[in-house]
Amino acid sequence: MKKPKPPILIIDDNEVDRYILKRLLKEANLELTIFEKNDGQEALEFLENYEANRQEYPGDFPPILIFLDINMPRVNGMQFLEEFAELRKIIEISSCVVMMFSSSERKEEKEIIMAYDFVKGYLVKGDFQAEDLKEKVQAVIGKYLI
């Protein structure tokens, strides 16, 4: 029997960046169930709706990996991380980890972000290829992959 495709969530307000990430994941031969949200607010609402989403997406919710942009409207990546840290204490998403996916290379931001124990990587948009992405994803969620 084939293992289910691990669910991931991409949070980015730029549709082109989401497309590029999905294309790279496909090129890397990573079979995943992909959810997409335009900003941190949409993503938090999606995660907070835990019970309904468990029923609507049996076996595919919650996501095990979140790709998170920093610069977004409404709730940006930094704000998302703060709220996500609190949300992890309330609902059953403690196994969900975050990999940053941003154009920002600011050292100060990286230090703040990487201080969260559930943040497992930081990818700079445009600075990696499909094989690099595959290695990073396998290092973080390899046990869930087919």
Automatic annotation (TrEMBL):
Q: Which SMART domains does the record cross-reference, listed alphabetically?
A: REC
Q: In its keyword annotation, does this UniProt entry include Ribosomal protein?
A: no
Keywords of the record: Phosphoprotein
Q: Residue limits of the Response regulatory domain?
A: 7-140
Upper lineage is: Bacteria, Pseudomonadati, Pseudomonadota, Gammaproteobacteria, Alteromonadales
Give the originating organism.
Pseudoalteromonas aliena SW19
Q: Report the domain of life of the source organism.
A: Bacteria
Q: Does the keyword Nucleus apply?
A: no
A family per Pfam: Response_reg
InterPro entries linked to this entry: CheY-like_superfamily, Sig_transdc_resp-reg_receiver, TCS_response_regulator
Residues with the modification 4-aspartylphosphate, per the entry, are: D69
SUPFAM superfamilies found in the cross-reference section: CheY-like (SSF52172)
Q: What is this protein called?
A: Response regulatory domain-containing protein
